């Protein structure tokens, strides 16, 4: 059980035990009856099954750490059970539409969800859970699908855009080595290798809170830790019907995550004094014969883009050493 599930279970035990029972029932049923078929439908896509769900819950445990019940935390900063309950269920459902293929998978959640929702949820809950899940992918989807930053379910104020943005960014950063676990890279077709190799190079991508100054200013970042062998920086990865240079593709993917961070930030300050995500911090170890030879650190912010990474003088110096003319 993930940390956030443990806290959720305890909150349910004190306030509404049926919530956790319902959650456990849905998760168990999806794990046994639906998730095993996702890889059969898309054999060379990275993991979208129960392990992916658990890793998203891990990310949420980090993002919501200052907003989960703990001694001394002001009540207005703590995510309440009604909002957490909606988020937990949306995580379970967000990728089930992949059973109908990758294209339009958020919209295809309904094809399964609508058949069972009346047995699982009261109508106000099912409507919001579906919208939160549908907003996890697609350009501008959160504001297109969810109207307004807040809503009411009975006597509770809920924040569906906030919850959808949390799910979306947590889903986006599930890109570390564990997502390709169990897959031998030689089995992956050349056109799909770039997606797998990105994950295999990435040791972790995690939300990280820390104080930047003596005054205690809180900073929330997403820290990316990765490792490249020296020979791989200029290597070619297969992508679609083409090839891409490894380091160029890697930074392009980090830049995409940064774009998602910027988009989700529009919805992340509407509830519980949640702190916007300030930056993506990339820490890249470059190894020779498995021993670290160089280290690159770079911050992706609202103003920094992919090209800024390659124009950084320290980065250029290190990459020239290993990548030569391929860059």
Structure in words:
With 327 residues, this protein is α+β, with helices and mostly antiparallel strands. It has two domains: 3-172, Hypothetical protein af1432 (Orthogonal Bundle), CATH 1.10.3210; 177-326, no CATH class. Helices cover 46% and strands 17% of the residues. It is built from 13 helices and eight strands. The strands form three sheets. Strands 3-4-7-8 form a four-stranded mixed β-sheet. Strands 1-2 form a two-stranded antiparallel ribbon. A hairpin with a 6-residue loop joins strand 3 and strand 4. Helix 6 (109-120) packs antiparallel against helix 7. It is globular. The model has no long low-confidence stretch (mean pLDDT 91).
Would you list the SSEs in sequence order as H and E? HHHHHHHHEEHHEEEEHEEHH
Tell me the domain tally.
Answer: 2
Alpha-beta classification: alpha+beta
| Secondary structure tally: strands | 8
Largest sheet, in brief, is: 4 strands, mixed
Q: Between the first and last Cα atoms, what is the distance in angstroms?
A: 44 Å
Q: What's the gyration radius in Å? A: 21 Å
Specify the CATH class of the largest domain.
Answer: Mainly Alpha
What is the third-level CATH name, the topology of the largest domain?
Hypothetical protein af1432
Tally the helices: what do you get? 13
Instruction: Characterize the overall form.
Output: globular
Based on the coordinates given, report the CATH architecture of the largest domain: Orthogonal Bundle
Instruction: Give the averaged pLDDT, no decimals.
Output: 91
Unreliable parts = none
What share of residues are in beta strands? 15-25%
Biggest sheet strand line-up:
3-4-7-8
The share of residues in helices is: 40-55%
